[in-house]
Write a structure and sequence with these properties.
Layout (H helix, E strand, L loop, with lengths): L13 E2 L5 E3 L2 H23 L7 H8 L13 H19 L2 H17 L8 H10 L12 H19 L3 H23 L10 H12 L2 H14 L23 E2 H18 L2 H17 L10 E5 L13 E6 L14 H17 L3 H15 L17 E2 L22 H10 L6 E3 L3 E4 L5 E6 L5 E8 L6 E11 L3 E7 L5 E6 L2 E7 L5 E7 L6 E6 L3 E4 L11 E6 L2 E6 L11 E4 L5 E7 L2 E15 L14 E13 L11 E2 L2 E4 L5
Parallel strand pairs: 8-12, 20-25
Antiparallel strand pairs: 1-7, 2-9, 3-5, 4-5, 6-24, 7-8, 9-10, 10-11, 11-16, 12-15, 13-14, 13-16, 17-18, 18-19, 18-25, 19-23, 19-24, 20-22, 21-22, 22-23
Helix pairs in contact: 1-3, 1-14, 2-4, 2-5, 3-4, 3-6, 3-14, 6-7, 6-8, 7-9, 8-9, 8-10, 10-11, 10-12, 12-13
InterPro entries: 6-hairpin_glycosidase_sf (IPR008928), Beta-AFase-like (IPR049174), Beta-AFase-like_GH127_C (IPR049049), Beta-AFase-like_GH127_cat (IPR012878), Beta-AFase-like_GH127_middle (IPR049046)
Keywords: ATP-binding, Nucleotide-binding
Protein name: ATP-binding protein
Length: about 650
């Protein structure tokens, strides 16, 4: 859910109300429709499955003593179901689906019945305790109770925001009461528990914003205070060092991005400058040295922590789904859990609210267009858990997750997270202040504005972005015509373009404008027409020389989109035989994949001609070639890969510097 920072003391901007904006055609409307029509129902069917693999809704029924049985599935299934509910709530908001709203009300009633009198709500422990008469609460670090609490609170606030109903909010407030008692006891004892995937910092703070009750801001601050009481913390969970000493991003990708999203939320309310120092430092480390070109983060499935004292006690150093060393970004084994990137999107949105700079929306856009929507098939019913940057024909080792999308994942946290970020995507189009509008992600939309200075009007945004760089904003339906400022985001990839207001060019854009906001003062809103033209030449991107897997290689980008090669588009035995000339020329060609039209790039590349057949099983062999040969290839947007069967895919290409014509 987008944060509601309208009253946050240290927020410089806030989002539009959910009902104030809709994608009305084009790229994002298509993604929303597939998600609403296919993904949301499909994910719900998995949670309603009462087999041992899922059993999620059934766990609530057993916990509420409506059915008999045992807990099955993951301990974090509750939180994953709340994320699906949030996605469904946005479908209700955008489409007025009354039947789905009734179903959500029924789920909320079920959850309230499962909740314990003291506010505790996590089905695994409730079911175990009722059958054994024991107390299994907070018994294991990986039972994800705080994760479940946090997503409950966030979703309850979303439901209040969308429907005006208090039913779910009452459950969330009872849960917050349980956490208050817990934290007060931990601080009294001087020792706290590790909290994995701490979504509850975001949840508690949003509860404060939704209810206006100071006790919830105090609770969020209490939670941060308690985390520094963890004994024998680890980098994997970001609690080896006190929070205020953090300067680098470490450990589990989701746990870290959720943590810093929550810290940013708390800063937005209390303005603690020490927290701001932490956020700025860790963000720079993440974006400057540990972020993939597709916006992915958390490069490693498993590894050893690169920071702190090394020890033969591996429990102190082992990390998983994690950030590794600086520039440690492998391609075939890239982990890049979808949830980690969504956590990073949420974090960057909060950083933008703190300090509205274009660099934060550059990361949001890169992550949304090149990983979040890549995590789901174009058909909307198959999903990636990890998001690799290369797939080869076969591996001699198994990866944790398959390198093909699948409709069923034993750990089903990513699909509902993907669904909520796509159903909420229109709220990333604009952010507003008292008298200004900041553009975020571009896409065809209609949005209604009412600013604090009294201005009230509608913007119709027309564009074929991200395929085309022309964005037109037409202002109308003006109820109060007072001066405003429009701040147009100039993306970091821009090399040239222009801005026109009411037919008059007011700016000739070049690289110096990239990753910035261009301010346009408007004295009379009614009838204003702004046109932003962004050139979209294909560009070749190189990586830092320390990123050793990509030395002397390039990636291909056009506008905000990353491109890749797949086996169906390359007439070669292996993609590794392909080289991209530095002087390559590209032709943009519409191309259909799974019934969806994308803009592909066609170009001529090179392949090595061997004097005799290459031994493709040899670890090393003598180079024996006669020279390069020409080959015609098609590249497709990275988000559209793995929709045509199991073949090879690659993003980084060996660069050829020789003559090529």
């Amino acid at each position: 859910m987008l944060i509601d920072t309208r009253k946050s003391k240290y927020s410089k901007v806030h989002s539009l109300p959910v009902q104030a904006i809709d994608w009305n055609e084009g790229f994002w409307k298509e993604r929303f429709d597939v998600c609403a029509d296919v993904s949301v129902p499909h994910i719900r069917s998995q949670f309603e499955d009462d087999s041992p693999t899922f059993h999620v809704v059934e766990n609530f029924r057993v916990a509420a003593e409506l059915h008999e049985g045992e807990h099955a599935g993951t301990p974090f299934g509750d939180g994953d179901f709340y994320k699906w509910m949030e996605a469904a709530m946005y479908v209700v908001a955008k489409r007025g689906d009354k039947e789905l709203e009734k179903d959500l009300d029924a789920y909320i009633e079920l959850i309230s019945k499962a909740q314990q009198l003291d506010g505790y709500i996590s089905t695994k422990q409730i079911i175990a305790d009722k059958s054994s008469g024991g107390n299994s609460r907070l018994g294991h670090v990986n039972d994800f109770e705080f994760y479940n609490f946090g997503h409950l609170m966030t979703t309850a606030c979303a439901y209040k925001r969308i429907t005006g109903k208090d039913s779910f909010l009452k459950v969330a407030e009872k849960a917050a009461g349980y956490l208050r008692n817990l934290y007060e006891e931990q601080i009294r004892k001087g020792e706290a528990l590790t909290e994995v995937c701490p979504s509850h910092y975001m949840g508690i703070t949003e509860l404060y914003r939704t209810t206006g009750k100071n006790e919830y801001l105090e609770l969020a601050e209490l939670a941060l205070k308690a985390r520094d009481l963890v004994k024998n913390g680890t980098n994997d969970n970001q609690d080896r060092l006190p929070l205020r000493e953090h300067r680098k991003i470490v450990g589990h990708g989701v746990r870290s991005t959720y943590l810093y999203s929550g810290v940013a939320d708390i800063y937005l309310e209390n303005g603690d400058e020490e927290l701001k120092t932490v956020l700025d430092s860790v963000w720079e480390n993440c974006v400057g040295k540990k972020l993939y070109i597709n916006g992915g983060c958390g490069a490693l499935y498993s590894g050893t922590s690169p920071y702190g004292e090394f020890s033969f006690d591996m429990s102190k150093n082992v990390v998983h789904q994690a950030f590794g060393y600086e520039y440690q970004l492998p391609n075939i084994t890239a982990y890049n859990e979808t949830c980690a990137t969504i956590g990073n999107i949420m974090w960057n949105l909060r950083m933008f609210a703190i300090d509205p700079q274009a660099k934060y929306f550059d990361i949001i856009e890169r992550s949304m267009l090149n990983l979040s929507i890549a995590s789901v098939s174009l058909s909307g019913d198959r999903y990636f858990y990890q998001n690799a940057l290369r797939r080869v024909k076969e591996l001699d080792h198994e990866l944790m997750w398959p390198l093909e999308r699948t409709g069923t994942l034993t750990c089903f946290c990513c699909p509902p997270n993907m669904a909520r970020i796509i159903t909420e995507s229109s709220e990333y189009a604009y952010m507003i202040s008292d008298d200004s509008i900041y553009t975020g992600m571009y896409g065809a939309n209609t949005a209604g504005f009412r600013l604090s200075n009294g201005a009230a009007f509608t913007i119709m945004q027309k564009t074929e972005y991200p395929w085309d760089g022309r964005v037109v904003m037409e202002f109308g339906d003006v109820k109060e015509d007072v001066p405003i400022t429009v701040k147009l985001r100039v993306p970091g990839w821009l090399t040239g373009g222009s801005i026109t207001v009411n037919g008059e060019e007011i700016a000739d854009l070049d690289k110096s404008h990239a990753s910035s906001y261009f301010s346009i003062d408007i004295d009379k809103i009614d009838g204003t027409r702004i046109e932003l033209q962004m050139d979209m030449p294909v560009r070749l991107t190189v990586a830092h020389s320390y990123l050793e897997e990509n030395i002397n290689q390039v990636a291909v980008e056009r506008g905000p989109l990353l491109y890749c090669l797949e086996s169906p588009d390359v007439p070669l035995p292996e993609l590794g035989d392909f080289m991209l000339p530095a002087s390559a020329k590209f032709k943009s060609v519409p191309y259909e994949i799974s019934g969806k039209t994308v803009l592909s790039l066609e170009t001529d590349g090179l392949t090595v001609k061997w004097n005799k057949e290459k031994d493709r099983q040899a670890l090393y062999q003598t180079l024996d070639i006669e020279g390069p040969g020409r080959v015609r290839v098609r590249m497709i947007p990275y988000f559209a890969w793995d929709n045509r069967g199991n073949g090879e895919m690659m993003v980084w290409f060996p660069l050829y510097f020789g003559e090529f014509s």
